[in-house]
Specification:
Chain lengths: 176, 486
């Protein structure tokens, strides 16, 4: 048998996978994940995930955007090429605010999307699970528990028994 | 045995049960099959006919634009003092329509309105295509299109930068940011659904195409955790964005000195009008679509009713704003303001004109079409019978957008055609080029929209799944056992 990437157990309801996640976490596994067609309420807590760090990317993006807007407008209209228009001041934080505000949102949004992709290590062109036929149901209506074989506690027989004890009807090994 | 949470699972009390968002307790598998089936099935005959018409209209639009570019802005009906004609009216109108998409996807998300999940994808697509149509007009309105890059912060041939003391520059940033962020938000929502399409794909081309744009999404909960946070942040950022875009568009007018434009009420009034027209367009699109694509179980009558209620609320805000404009015009005591509102807008030849001894205004019909469609029409939505009658909703939703087009016409052109000095007065009529360009943008809009419903799931599959009781681990349908502690 070729070296397997992970053991994969299929569950049929959100309640079952939530139970399974709690059990697996309590059993001390580290390299495992849950795959579901939609986010399940309470799953982050059951898996012991910390608050996502996407917010930081967005915050830094937003600050960059605001600073870019203000500096750009000051540089263009009050420093590099000064033109008096309608007796208005060369630079005013008020007239510079609307474009800077828009740039805050623009850069903040890019921060959120790109931050999410970075934290998830996406885009990814290849993944062992995506080669598995059964796993295609993870975007349909099934819920999968995947424990990777490089987990220190992983053992083909015991891990399989644990997953069976949680009521999974279909368990298989995923090839590398 | 498990000490995480000792919630006893109970069946929800009957009196608290709401009308389910998805009819007949359909589960996640059915939802995937039904929504993806729209894209996977054969191309319907009506789609081909509509597509042919749309592409023809789009071609007419581009031909008219080419004629304008090669000849000059003289082919439009512009003439002093009405130098902002249909192009600006259409720009404001289309961009207003876009607002419903972001409102549904962002503000209703923050307000935890779960019914949004059935309509947000189509509404966001509508936003993107409407902003594309809107963007064409200011670009061709600059006359010499080849100088369009002067709008961007690039120094021109004399090393002069664009100047940011003008609201027109703010507009460039507002609209381009709005478009970009709408696309980002839409695309992020699409990632899990593109993965659904990838996993269902039967042909290699589909698998590759959807797979490429799904970016290798697996549905991992560690990914969902970051994804949901990013979605929340994007919703939080889009909310002030959607409020700011039409506010900034309104500043193009209200920062100037012209009576009828120079009003502080404009930003909130424009935003309410934008949401009103946007919901009108969402209803115009989705009421027939839900029937033709057999999606009545997902986009239910309840969804339509709720959208009608939003239309009623925002339409009433618009009506209030009209009243307030008249009150302020009268209360300010400014003769130019009073002239603009009473003599140039409201004076019709039948009732108010004779009553107030005012000569009928040249565009009285435009003003009263606007009032009928924007103040009277939404009031029909107070009645449940009308809200649940799809034909009535469809007809009224079209009138909403007729009214909103006239509102922009009233604001832009009626204000301009009677300015301070009577010797400057003029009457504005569009030419065939104006008309072809306006109707042509419908071709552009529907071409993109039809392509969208043919190739991309038009309902957010993962999001709709997430609001069904089957997705709730504490609901009996989600696998929780009645009476079980967990």
């Amino acid at each position: 048998m070729p070296a397997s990437y992970a053991i994969m157990a299929e569950f049929e309801s959100p309640a079952a996978i939530l139970h399974a996640a709690r059990k697996v976490r309590e059993s001390g596994y580290r390299q495992w994940d849950v795959f579901t067609p939609f986010p399940i309420h309470g799953m982050d807590g059951a898996m012991g995930l910390k608050n996502s760090r996407v917010g930081w990317f967005s915050f830094i993006g937003g600050c960059t955007g605001y600073a870019t807007g203000m500096l750009m407008i000051w540089f263009m209209n009050a420093y590099d090429y000064r033109i008096v228009i309608g007796g208005k001041p060369m630079f005013s934080p008020f007239s510079a605010f609307p474009p800077s505000y828009e740039l805050t949102i623009l850069f903040g949004s890019f921060g959120a999307l790109l931050g999410m992709l970075f934290l998830n290590r996406l885009p990814r062109l290849h993944h062992p699970l995506l080669k598995n036929r059964r796993f295609a149901l993870a975007t349909h209506d099934r819920f999968f528990m995947v424990i990777e074989s490089n987990d220190p506690k992983y053992s083909e027989n015991e891990t399989r028994r644990l997953l069976e004890s949680m009521g999974s009807k279909h368990i298989e090994f995923v090839e590398e | 045995m498990d000490d995480h949470a000792a919630i006893e699972v109970q069946a929800p009390p009957v009196e608290l049960e709401r009308i389910p968002l998805v009819a007949h307790q359909h589960g996640p598998g059915w939802l995937s099959d039904r929504i993806a089936g729209v894209v996977e099935g054969d191309t319907p005959a009506w789609w081909k006919i509509c597509f042919a018409i749309s592409v023809t209209m789009m071609t007419v639009c581009f031909a008219a634009i080419l004629y304008l570019m090669s000849t000059g802005v003289g082919v439009w009906g512009l003439g002093h003092p009405v130098m902002w004609g249909w192009a600006i009216v259409n720009f404001v109108w289309w961009i207003g329509i876009g607002h419903a998409g972001t409102l549904i996807s962002a503000i209703l998300f923050l307000l935890r309105q779960k019914w949004r999940t059935s309509i947000n994808r189509a509404a966001e697509a509508m936003t993107i295509f409407a902003v594309m149509c809107a963007g064409i007009f200011p670009l061709i309105h600059i006359g010499r299109i080849w100088y369009g890059w002067w709008l961007f912060p690039i120094p021109n041939s004399f090393s002069i930068w664009p100047q940011f003391r003008s609201p027109l520059m703010w507009d460039v940033f507002a609209v381009s940011t709005y478009f970009t962020v709408s696309v980002l938000f839409w695309y992020m929502g699409l990632i899990p659904d593109l993965a659904v399409m990838r996993d269902r794909a039967k042909t290699k081309i589909r698998k590759f195409g959807y797979g490429l744009f799904a970016l290798g999404w697996t549905g991992s909960n560690r990914h969902w955790s970051n994804y949901e946070k990013a979605y929340l942040i994007l919703a939080g950022l889009s909310t002030p964005l959607v409020l700011s875009v039409h506010s900034i568009v309104s500043l193009d007018f209200s920062v100037s000195q012209l009576p009828g434009w120079h009003t502080t009420i404009f930003p909130p009034y424009f935003v309410a009008g934008a949401v009103y027209s946007g919901f009108g367009m969402v209803l115009t699109l989705l009421v027939p679509l839900r029937r033709m694509l057999k999606l009545e179980d997902i986009i239910r009558v309840r969804h339509v009713e709720l959208m009608c209620k939003v239309t009623l609320a925002t339409g009433s805000i618009v009506g209030y704003a009209y009243g307030m404009e008249f009150f302020i015009a009268w209360y300010s005591g400014n003769p130019y303001e009073r002239f603009q509102f009473f003599q140039t807008r409201a004076a019709d030849p039948f009732i108010f004109g004779p009553l107030l001894h005012i000569r009928p205004a040249p565009y009285w019909w435009a003003f009263w079409t606007m009032v009928t469609c924007n103040v009277v029409v939404p009031q029909f939505f107070w009645f449940k019978k009308i809200r649940t009658c799809m034909l009535a909703v469809f007809v009224l939703s079209i009138l909403v957008n007729v009214g909103m087009w006239f509102e922009r016409f009233v604001i832009v052109d009626i204000s301009l055609h009677r300015e301070f000095i009577p010797s400057n007065w003029n009457y504005y009529s569009p030419t065939w080029v104006d008309i072809c360009q306006y109707l042509g943008t419908f071709g552009l809009f529907f071409t993109f929209f039809l392509l969208f419903i043919r190739f991309i799931p038009l309902i957010a599959i993962a999001e709709v799944k997430g609001v069904t009781p089957q997705a709730d681990p504490h609901h009996p349908l989600g696998g929780a056992k009645i009476g079980e502690k967990h």
